[in-house]
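Table S2 (continued). Query chain:
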Amino acid sequence: MLKIQGEAVASVQQLREYIKKVNKNVPQSVLDMIEYYIEEGKAEGIRGDIAFAQSCLETGNFTFKDSAVTLEQNNFAGLGVTQQGMRGNAFSDAKTGIRAQIQHLKAYANKESLNNTCVDVRFSYVTRGTAPYVEWLGIQENPNGGGWASGKNYGNKIIDILNQIIYVFLTIFLYLLKCPQSLILSALRAFCFCGKPHISRSIFLYFRYQAWLKSW
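Corresponding output:
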């Protein structure tokens, strides 16, 4: 199970590289605002990379195709969209919209007080601490009966995107270090079977060290 609370594993650069890869026409304004996911997440103790992966799911990788929200709303997670056809909440700027998303995730993740002024108008609607894991953001998978969205495997879809963000970067990194294919596959396999971010980071550093040894 993957906890929503914690420190981001993916960096701002990794998030940018991923979205440029999957959306060749991503607006510059989206690339510029990505740093807010990490900043706002850090402020509330919530993984900003998970919030970004969620936004990718909700907006169709910021193409907004078949999405309930638009870029101009600065609502990148479907906040306020409680039924089909609703447009959801709108925010004055991207940073405020991302802050609201982070705060809403925190409402599900734990019962701790917010560190910043609340801008999430739906914060009080959440039963606090009922979805500490990404997998439980989907109502169908949440044993407490709540959650962010009703779609089947909603949380797992977020994790799939997050894995793509991390794995693609890792593959490129090891390739640039001229690692043999067997080492790259071993690294990816280790990441695939490890759901704990701090262990994943340790694995990454281990393979980086192995690559350095092979360069001698």
